[in-house]
């Protein structure tokens, strides 16, 4: 019983139908043929019916009819029915004459018996289409239930993912208020960190965000990165844009991230960074310029950020963008132009 319950619903349905048919044949034949003979005939007939049904719905129909080979399908179906009918006729007659016929002269196969077997199997052949519809229905129903379950699981995971950041944001707010009393500058950095994390949670999954949101994210990131550098950084951020424009999130991040990963000399007091964001002819032009450190930072991943950005730009804009990087003896320049 446990094995039966572990089967898929469609398999259980088919087993149930065949067992029901077997019992129906057995009890129909039982009054005339007795227990043993009725059981043998019921098993034989059920086996031949199964051969016709699954020969059609599992072999002929998907391999011929569904592949638009309908003439060959009809020919194969007719030939198959005749072959199975002939096999069934002689099998049934052999079983009867061998085990149950008490007469000295065995009965012979007649045309009438053969025709009756053909007509019976033809009916089963036609009924196989109904079984196929039932199977397709239950398969579709199972897939719909699985999709519904996956959807419910996704909603649950989404709720979990929302609860965890909200807990973190509330905790950061509490820390912010505690820090504000003792160290206002530290509190400001906590606030910037909170805004960055909120950007990742709320804005980065979107297709597009307001340019003002992206600028605020960059400013917060720069402020947090500056505290890691011992000496003050000379930063110029020029913005001549309409901040209501919308762009894909994290589009401008790579240039700024590369500056702090590869373009800052932490021992120098003369780090200079210029960031320019302009709107020209319905295009967004983003430029960064930074001094090169005297001792470059060794990194096996150097350049991968720009390569990944280029791949993303191709997906977003096709060839309708311009990405350039230029390195001189003392400076590194990067420029990105995309349509608005």
From TrEMBL:
Which GO CC annotations does the UniProt entry carry?
membrane
A Pfam cross-reference name: His_kinase
Listed A to Z, the keywords are:
Coiled coil, Kinase, Membrane, Transferase, Transmembrane, Transmembrane helix
Source taxon at top rank: Bacteria
Q: Which InterPro entries match?
A: Bact_2-comp_sensor_kinase (IPR050640), HATPase_C_sf (IPR036890), Sig_transdc_His_kin_internal (IPR010559)
Q: Does the keyword Membrane apply?
A: yes
Sample GO molecular function, one term: phosphorelay sensor kinase activity
Q: Where is the Signal transduction histidine kinase internal region domain?
A: 155-231
| Coiled-coil spans in chain | 137-164
The transmembrane residues are 41-59, 71-93, 113-140
PANTHER family for the chain:
SENSOR HISTIDINE KINASE YPDA
Q: What is this protein called?
A: Histidine kinase
